[in-house]
User: Which sequence fits this backbone?
């Protein structure tokens, strides 16, 4: 492997990892706190991207589209959480299965509204070019995604470790009973976290529309990656999401290059191993279920 | 009470009669739909066996089904092994793989169980997709034959009926056996099983392997029905659809699996010809079932129609049995948290199929 | 009742059931399906194309093309009404079988048109094979073997093609261009294998060398890993075959990673076809590819079709649209020639297969004795029209390209179909295996 190739593969892995972090940080938070594997998270991502597409077709900039996609999906997340998930609160399987049903519906409705053509969103004009990094041509937009990933990680770090909300969430991940015993409105916290996760998914959808393109089936593909990230990283753990995202991004990048036919196993084999030997993930802590 | 029993037997006889006479009554299209309903029902039942009776929800069962389908295709088309032997080898492969998967699963429960099975299903799909020399990759395997005596649509229907009926008979026996009861014990109160002297891991492993075997039989029927097997049949979506059928009909019941597969086959074969947004309909049915009748169509029927009837005709104890939901629903309700009549304690973990008879048998035994 | 009598009763019931089952299974139920073919009355045609699922866009193009032909020409041929029944297969092989059964057994369709993806076409072929009274038209399922090693007699490539036909030309052309070292990047499934096989086979015949082979699974979210593997200095050109959503991502990233200006790209048909160009931007302009269709072909047959299509659907037609349009034309003109009589299916099939289109949106088209399409192949270049739409304009035409290229058909058929393991690099070994223009001697 040449030096140039190594640099490129690393950059690719890290920037893809950053995109995965944007998506899976919300996913893992929902998982950790609410014990819900939100299998509609991929749909949130795709729908967010499509909302962004509609805004951009209406002449709005990438940035407006990104915020619009995020807000639209936050509202959708609120409706799903309050309207549906609340009705089956605390019962793990119905919650998970409900999100499976929703993902079927969202995928079909998205197809009805936006059609089946794969669509690549336009890059923001400020980040449309390429840069030369030690002899390697690299698109600026990917570096922007990397920057956004770092920014979000920092924000969430501060939120979790320095604020009251963060403390409640951390406590909630470890022991839900205790939080409610302290007189905190658990349902409000749950809704808040779910909406926040949806917001991030919607925002990531618009970014992903530029990075990877939007099409029917993109919801399932990205969800698979997010699942692997969360399983590797462990539930509700910010560090886990960061390390998991980077790991998955790099495994994917180098795996595809080194053993294309095995790249799929390179992704899923560590996941299966982790599940068997460290079922709570690399950084997962023992929790009170 | 006797009237009620009469009604029950009469309707049962009608169902059996219709099932047997079906090819003489309707066109080949509907007979083919019924055939699909049979093997998808068996597939849903295999999920039911671990999800409904054992509380282990899988999103990877289509992967297990695929081992049999691909096994049959590979032995029969690539190595020209006779069909019957190929089927046998395929089932043996399925049992081995299911047992191996089961070994990886024994420590997991709940959401983790679901995710490991999801990953296992993805691995099988990945192999089917990538190992093109063996599986034909995306193009799948063509030329899988039906048994020489069951080539026609109607003879294949009878063949499937016989195979599925036999499997249902076996499953009904298993569910009522001591093993079936201990499996329910795992669902109701896993942590309490060990002190009672049960080897929970072994029970789970055994249950997963048995369930996988039946999924394998469904896979054989599917492959022979289509003369063809390809990766979409083992994809996560197929697993989710199996789960959907199982839940829609009613987890933990035998009839439920077939009611669920009936609805599914009807929507995908018939409604889809008239309604473009049929996947949305399928999703809606799924969501509404989970929200409003988590015990499925069969559960709702028993709760809302059958139990009141029983009560009116003076069989209050049977009605109560149904109302506390001995048969199923434990998966989707939180009854286990509240700790109602636990199956092990009551020692009467009767499947809801034939409540009247079960009660009598229990009485006779005690 | 005690447990013993209960068990006894069950045994009786079981025995009775088995008996009834055996009796019922002994005699065949009657009931012939009413057929939509025959001599008179409406002809029912079932069209199976995906209008949901991942390939919904291309499937919709197919449906549009089919409908457009009947809208323009009227749905009455030789006194018989053509009734179209569309069924969606969502791009799934099993659903394809379900829908084919429904169309034939329930609706009485005499003709089945479809489908798109090779795997669904193979499944449909499997269903049609034993039926002696149903005719299948295959406008888009391009799996090589459907007209080579796995021919299904009543499944006819009307308006269809073979995956490796355009790339046989491409491999030969690449050598002519002076390229000696080429990198190939193909989608890792049957269609990709056949495309890369065609290119590799003819390019290496001439003495060219494939210096690097990359395989990307269908649905690769990110091509950057593959692109970073490509060192522009190590090769003269790259042959690339991507499909569907992968194509958009690939073409964008080809530019992003600075390869567009540094390494000539030879595209396969589906990397730069119209239904995908709709979503692409300037990154695609100027890229060249080989295909059996070019919407920019400057010929009245193509341009009239394009104009009608734009009027009806407000977008340029892809090869998917042209395929079903041509299949409709093919079928209608055969029916006309047979005076509307479909009662003798084998005779009808023979006329259908012997039919030659002197011109069509694809150009002239006919079938060889194996049922393979002999048609014009195009070297195409993506350009932008006055309205800012991207389209493929014709750079070069290669008329009457056979599915066997210049090889001897018999020798070719003795080889396996192209797979990842067999790309024809070392074949043919001698000029005996060529029918014409053997390149082995000249070198």
Assistant:
């Amino acid at each position: 492997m040449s030096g140039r190739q190594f640099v490129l593969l690393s950059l690719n892995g890290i920037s893809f990892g950053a995109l995965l972090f944007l998506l899976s940080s919300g996913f893992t938070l929902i998982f950790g706190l609410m014990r819900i594997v939100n299998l509609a998270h991929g749909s949130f991502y795709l729908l967010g991207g499509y909302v962004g597409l509609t805004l951009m077709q209406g002449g709005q900039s990438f940035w407006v589209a990104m915020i619009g996609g995020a807000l639209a999906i936050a509202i959708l997340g609120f409706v799903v959480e309050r309207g549906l998930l609340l009705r089956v609160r605390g019962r793990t399987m119905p919650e998970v299965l409900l999100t499976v049903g929703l993902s079927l519906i969202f995928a079909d409705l998205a197809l009805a509204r936006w059609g089946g053509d794969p669509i690549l969103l336009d890059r923001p004009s400020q980040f449309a070019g390429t840069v030369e990094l030690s002899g390697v041509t690299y698109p600026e937009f990917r570096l922007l995604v990397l920057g956004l990933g770092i920014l979000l990680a920092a924000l969430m770090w501060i939120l979790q470790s320095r604020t009251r909300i963060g403390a409640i969430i951390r406590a909630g991940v470890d022991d839900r009973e205790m939080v409610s015993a302290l007189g905190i409105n658990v349902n409000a916290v749950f809704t808040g976290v779910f909406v926040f996760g949806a917001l991030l998914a919607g925002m990531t959808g618009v970014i992903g529309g530029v990075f990877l393109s939007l099409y029917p089936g993109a919801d399932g593909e990205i969800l698979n990656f997010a699942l692997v990230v969360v399983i590797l990283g462990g539930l509700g753990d910010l560090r886990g999401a960061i390390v998991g995202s980077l790991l998955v991004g790099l495994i994917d990048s180098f795996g595809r290059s080194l053993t294309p036919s095995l790249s799929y196993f390179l992704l899923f084999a560590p996941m299966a191993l982790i599940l068997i030997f460290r079922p709570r993930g690399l950084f997962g802590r023992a929790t009170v279920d | 009470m006797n009237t009620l029993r009469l009604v029950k037997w009469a309707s049962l006889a009608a169902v059996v009669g219709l099932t047997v006479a079906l090819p003489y009554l309707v066109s080949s299209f509907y007979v083919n739909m019924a055939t699909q309903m049979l093997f998808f029902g068996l597939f849903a039942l295999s999920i039911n066996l671990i999800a409904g009776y054992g509380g282990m929800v899988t999103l990877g069962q289509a992967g297990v089904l695929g081992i049999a389908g691909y096994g049959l295709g590979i032995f029969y088309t690539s190595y020209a092994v006779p069909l019957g032997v190929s089927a046998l080898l395929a089932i043996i492969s399925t049992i081995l793989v299911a047992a191996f998967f089961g070994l990886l699963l024994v420590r997991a429960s709940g959401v983790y169980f679901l995710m490991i099975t999801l990953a296992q299903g993805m691995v099988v799909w990945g192999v089917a997709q990538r190992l093109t020399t063996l599986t034909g990759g995306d193009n799948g395997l063509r030329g899988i034959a039906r048994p020489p005596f069951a080539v026609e649509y109607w003879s294949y229907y009878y063949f499937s009926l016989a195979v599925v009926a036999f499997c249902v008979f076996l499953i009904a026996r298993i569910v009522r056996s001591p093993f079936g009861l201990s499996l329910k014990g795992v669902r109701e109160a896993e942590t309490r099983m060990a002190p009672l002297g049960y080897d929970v891991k072994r029970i789970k492993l055994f249950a997963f392997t048995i369930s996988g075997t039946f999924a394998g039989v469904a896979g054989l029927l599917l492959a022979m029905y289509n003369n063809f097997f390809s990766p979409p049949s083992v994809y996560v979506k197929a697993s989710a659809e199996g789960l959907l059928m199982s839940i829609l009909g009613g987890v933990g019941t035998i009839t439920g699996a077939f009611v669920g597969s009936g609805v599914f086959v009807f929507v995908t074969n018939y409604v889809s010809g008239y309604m473009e947004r049929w996947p949305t309909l399928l999703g809606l049915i799924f969501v509404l079932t989970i929200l409003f009748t988590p015990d499925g169509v069969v559960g709702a029927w028993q709760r809302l129609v059958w139990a009141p009837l029983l009560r009116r005709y003076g069989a209050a104890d049977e009605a109560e049995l149904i109302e506390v939901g001995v048969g199923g629903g434990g998966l989707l309700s939180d009854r286990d948290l509240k700790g109602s009549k636990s199956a092990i304690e009551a020692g009467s973990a009767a499947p809801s199929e034939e409540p009247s008879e079960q009660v009598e048998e229990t009485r006779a035994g005690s | 009742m005690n447990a013993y009598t209960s068990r006894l009763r069950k045994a009786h019931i079981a025995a009775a059931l088995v008996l009834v089952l055996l009796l019922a299974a002994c005699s065949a139920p009657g009931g012939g399906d009413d057929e939509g073919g025959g001599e008179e009355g409406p002809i029912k045609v079932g069209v199976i194309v995906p209008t949901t699922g991942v390939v919904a866009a291309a499937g919709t193009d197919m449906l549009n093309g089919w409908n457009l032909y009947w809208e323009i020409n009227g749905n009455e041929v030789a006194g018989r009404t053509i009734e179209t029944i569309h069924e969606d297969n969502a791009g799934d092989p099993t659903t394809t079988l379900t829908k084919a059964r429904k169309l034939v057994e329930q609706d009485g369709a005499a003709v089945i048109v479809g489908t798109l993806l090779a795997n669904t076409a193979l499944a449909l072929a499997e269903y049609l094979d034993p039926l002696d009274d149903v005719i299948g038209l295959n406008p888009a399922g391009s799996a090589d073997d459907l007209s080579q090693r796995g021919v299904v007699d009543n499944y006819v490539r009307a308006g269809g093609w073979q995956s490796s036909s355009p790339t046989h030309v491409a491999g030969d052309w690449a050598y002519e261009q002076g390229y000696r070292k080429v990198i190939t990047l193909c989608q890792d499934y049957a269609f990709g294998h056949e495309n890369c096989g065609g290119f590799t086979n003819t390019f290496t015949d001439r003495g060219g060398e494939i210096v690097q082979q990359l395989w990307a699974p269908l649905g690769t979210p990110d091509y950057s890993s593959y692109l970073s593997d490509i060192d522009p200095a190590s090769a003269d050109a790259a042959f690339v075959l991507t499909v569907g959503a992968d194509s958009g991502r690939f073409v964008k990233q080809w530019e992003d990673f600075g390869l567009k200006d540094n390494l000539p790209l030879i595209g396969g048909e589906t990397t730069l076809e119209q239904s995908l160009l709709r979503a692409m931007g300037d990154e695609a302009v100027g890229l060249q590819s080989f295909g059996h269709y070019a919407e920019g072909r400057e010929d009245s047959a193509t341009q009239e079709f394009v104009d009608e299509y734009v009027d009806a659907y407000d977008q340029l037609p892809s090869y998917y649209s042209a395929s079903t349009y041509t299949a409709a034309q093919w079928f209608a003109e055969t029916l006309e020639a047979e005076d509307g009589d479909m009662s003798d299916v084998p005779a009808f099939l023979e006329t259908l297969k012997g039919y030659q289109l002197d011109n069509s949106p694809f150009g002239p088209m006919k079938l060889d004795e194996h049922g393979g399409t002999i048609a014009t192949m195009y070297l195409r270049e993506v350009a932008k029209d006055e309205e800012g739409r991207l389209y493929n304009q014709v750079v070069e035409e290669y008329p009457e390209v056979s599915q066997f290229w210049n090889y001897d058909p018999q020798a070719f058929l003795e080889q396996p179909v192209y797979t990842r393991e067999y790309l024809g690099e070392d074949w043919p070994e001698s000029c005996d295996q060529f029918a014409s223009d053997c390149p082995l001697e000249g070198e």
